[in-house]
Write a structure and sequence with these properties.
By secondary structure, the chain is mainly alpha-helical. It is built from 23 helices and 6 strands. A two-stranded antiparallel sheet has the order 1-2. It has a two-stranded antiparallel sheet with strand order 3-6. A two-stranded antiparallel sheet has the order 4-5.
């Protein structure tokens, strides 16, 4: 959906043809292994460190999401088993370690940046602004998972010249981290609104930036869209409600200074251009479609919702069970595990469309896209009494979601599921008028907010699982029913993840300060409904 920057792709392919991913990542993970570094290199190193939890990969989907967020949002159907609501330690540690790899890269970027000549800093300012924006997007995800994390003093081992004893970081409260990031993102947005990049340095940025291919406009839209997401996330918290209302109004009333993602051509995502490079979605297949592991079974509530409204996303997101006679049936979470397994074994349960998702090695890594932004706008306008504008944003979000999923299906390198019939205007018009979707049929603000939440849930599904779980906790919509696991102390899905064991072991003194709040059923500060 974004245009390809040819010079960037040529450089990327040259780079990856000369070394394996582990060589590239290792060089950036430990700057001492390379003779000379620079802000440009460190910027790309940070992106490389973070890309595996943006682009669909095996460990994220199989080890982490398959047994945590995807079933807890009922984006997938799963077989009920004991202890299914306790986050697996390996998957949680994967996310934790990856984040701190990215943060270490960012701290190294900051270290190098501080020693860069001021004149060159001025010319490379886009690297500084984009690096911070990327880091804050990663940090928002972590705060929304754990609530409290080491941040302000974390990742400083290199800065502290390898002094481990002085590099153990204290934990920062989630509210404080959000406040800091919102302040910083506002400053970044203001700086980007007037930033001019010289052509020579624009070319350098394009060569190093595989998120937005060097587009300052897209980085600006990412920053403001990220602000919109974060402000909405905290909008019902007493500490942030006033700020959220005023800053969202400022963003949406001034699209020239604070543009956001408006169309799928402006989606902020890591596109895949050549699956022979390390930036690919090859791991998506085994991440959700591993035989016998039920990572892609369709959930009953989502399937029923799509069927009842005649939604054309049904056929591009899912395939009928192999023995279901063309009927889409989702797995009921309230059945016993043995009954569920019998249905799966009999080939009766639908599953995620393989051409669109698991077999699609070109599936992009989504950071923020147009549909999400439209639903955020719809919520703001709804709560501020502008019903007509809210409706327009809501319906635009549905259309953008449909277009997005048909687009990613069209770029797939594997046609195993066949080509779905295109969504027609008549279908979309009927969908917008259907029960459970029609804006005009909803009689109250709460009912219309429910419509937005349902559409956000469908759109996020397994593709934006971290945002999906956060919004489900924030809005408590859709209302989901879960089998109660009475064999465990955690009988239902949790409200947060808890700090991994290794962090507790090695950073125990700092952990003790937040130990009392580190509980699975302790809601995050923005979860006030």
């Amino acid at each position: 959906m974004k245009s390809i920057n040819i010079s960037f792709i040529a450089l990327l392919l040259l780079l990856f043809s000369a070394c394996q991913k582990e060589d590239f990542a290792d060089a950036y993970a430990d700057p001492s292994k390379i003779a000379e570094t620079s802000p440009e290199r460190q910027f790309t190193g940070m992106l490389v460190a973070g890309q595996d939890y943006i682009v669909p990969n095996y460990r994220n989907y199989f080890v982490t999401l398959r047994i945590t967020l995807n079933p807890w949002t009922q984006s997938i159907g799963w077989i009920n088993t004991p202890n299914q609501y306790v986050p697996g330690s390996s998957g949680v540690e994967d996310v934790w370690y990856n984040y701190y790899d990215v943060l270490a890269q960012y701290r190294e970027f900051q270290k190098v940046w501080e020693t860069t000549d001021p004149t060159r800093q001025d010319k490379l300012e886009i690297f500084n602004l984009a690096a911070a924006a990327f880091m804050y997007g990663e940090t928002q995800r972590m705060v929304d998972l754990f609530g409290t994390i080491p941040f302000s003093d974390a990742g400083m081992l290199s800065t502290n010249s390898g002094d481990y004893a002085n590099s153990y970081a204290s934990f920062d409260d989630g509210k404080d981290i959000y406040t800091f990031m919102l302040n910083e993102l506002k400053s970044i947005a203001d700086a980007l609104s007037t930033l001019e990049v010289e052509p020579a340095f624009q070319s350098i940025f394009a060569a190093q930036d595989f998120v937005n291919n060097g587009s300052v406009d897209l980085w600006t839209r990412y920053v403001n869209s990220l602000r919109l997401r974060m402000l909405t996330r905290v909008s019902e918290s007493a500490e942030f409600s006033g700020r959220a209302s005023s800053e969202i109004a400022e963003i949406l009333s001034n699209p020239t200074k604070y543009p956001v993602v408006e169309s799928n051509d402006q989606n902020i995502m890591i596109d895949i251009y050549d699956v022979s490079t390390p930036i690919n979605s090859k791991g998506f297949d085994q991440g959700i479609n591993s035989s016998g592991w039920d990572g892609d079974d369709a959930p009953k509530k989502m399937i029923d919702f799509l069927k009842d409204s005649g939604d054309p996303r049904l056929r591009v997101l899912f395939e009928p069970g192999t023995q279901a006679g063309g009927e889409y049936t989702g797995l009921d979470p309230m059945l016993t595990g043995s009954d569920q397994q019998a249905q799966v074994n009999a080939g009766m349960i639908a599953f995620y469309n393989r051409t669109t998702t698991s077999r699609n090695q070109f599936f992009p890594g989504v950071m923020i896209n147009a549909s999400e932004v439209s639903f955020l706008k719809a919520e703001y306008y709804l709560k501020n009494g502008d019903d007509a504008t809210a409706k327009a944003a809501y319906e635009a979000g549905i259309r953008q979601s449909i277009d997005f999923y048909y687009y990613v299906n069209s770029i797939s390198n594997d046609g195993i599921s066949g080509t779905p019939a295109p969504a027609t205007e008549d279908e979309i018009t009927a969908l917008l008028a259907a029960d459970g979707v029609s804006w005009d049929s909803a009689g109250s603000t709460d009912e219309k907010l429910t419509l937005i939440a349902y559409q956000k849930w469908v759109h996020f599904n397994i593709i934006q699982p971290y945002q999906n779980w956060a919004e489900l906790r924030r809005l408590d919509v859709p209302s989901l029913s879960f089998w109660q696991d009475n064999s465990s102390t955690q009988t239902l899905p949790p409200m947060r993840w808890t700090i991994p064991g290794n962090e507790i072991t090695y950073n125990g003194d700092n952990y003790q300060a937040i130990q009392s709040e580190d509980k699975l059923d302790n809601p995050l500060f923005w979860d006030v409904r």
